[in-house]
Amino acid sequence: MIRRKYFTLEYLNERILSFPYQYTDKLDKPHKIPQTFAVKKSIGGNGHENATLLRLLPFIIGNAVPEDDGAWTVLMDLKEVVELSLCSEFTEESIQYLQSKIQDHREMMKEASRFQTPS
User: Fold this and answer.
1) Selection from 9, 117, 17, 18 nearest residue 70 by Cα
2) Taking CA 102 as the corner, what is the angle to CA 95 and CA 7, rounded to the nearest 5 degrees?
3) Structural domain containing residue 42
4) For the residues 82-111, what does the mean pLDDT come to?
5) Is residue 60 part of a domain?
6) CA 77 to CA 22: how far, in whole Å?
7) What is the superkingdom listed in this entry's lineage (predicted)?
8) pLDDT tens figures, 61-88
9) Which residue, 17, 43, 70, 93, is the most exposed by fewest CB within 10 angstroms?
């Protein structure tokens, strides 16, 4: 999304740092994305911080991204998979649904990667 110029890394980091985190999100507040994230292929942070970032991303930068953007769709699908994975209780049906969502997400990732523009 940065490559597509929807926003800059500086804008994203400013939004992450200035977001009004509440309750447990304050404990798991995400860190700035490092300048080297593309080279390292990692945004850093721990699992709790990254789950918080993913869950709140629509509120942090959603207004800057076109709804029909393929990368955004993949990211929002990942958000759903992560949220399902972090449930405190599972039923046989929820496990089957999660398996289906993971499989769908993998296919979506494969499809999206075919259309990626080089850096």
Assistant:
1) 117
2) 130
3) 9-114
4) 89
5) yes
6) 24
7) Eukaryota
8) 999 999 888 889 889 999 999 999 888 8
9) 93
